[in-house]
Design brief:
The protein is α+β, with helices and mostly antiparallel strands. 58% of the residues lie in helices and 15% in strands.
Amino acid sequence: MKIDKSLITGSTTLLVLSLLKDGEKYGYEMISELDRRSENVFSLKEGTLYPLLHSLEKEGLIVSSLKVAESGRERKYYSLTKKGAVRLSEKVGEWQTFSHAVDAVVRGRA
């Protein structure tokens, strides 16, 4: 099932920070991991991911570093900062409250 992009747009920060909680990753690795974990429901394009990464880095939520991969190619890796971990925790709480409320309305529960 294809998901309305407006539903995904509000969740991209949560998704990207969640990908980085387990350790540093480079851009394409994040795109692939998001596809895999979401069973291809969430598919970020580079044109969406990289501006978001730059914004998160500017806010101090993530940091980047250049490293040489096993292939010998230099890649920019991103990792979560302490401030980013706090923001992730806040975003998870927001998501849980939001998804619980939506589920209650959709299922007709009080």
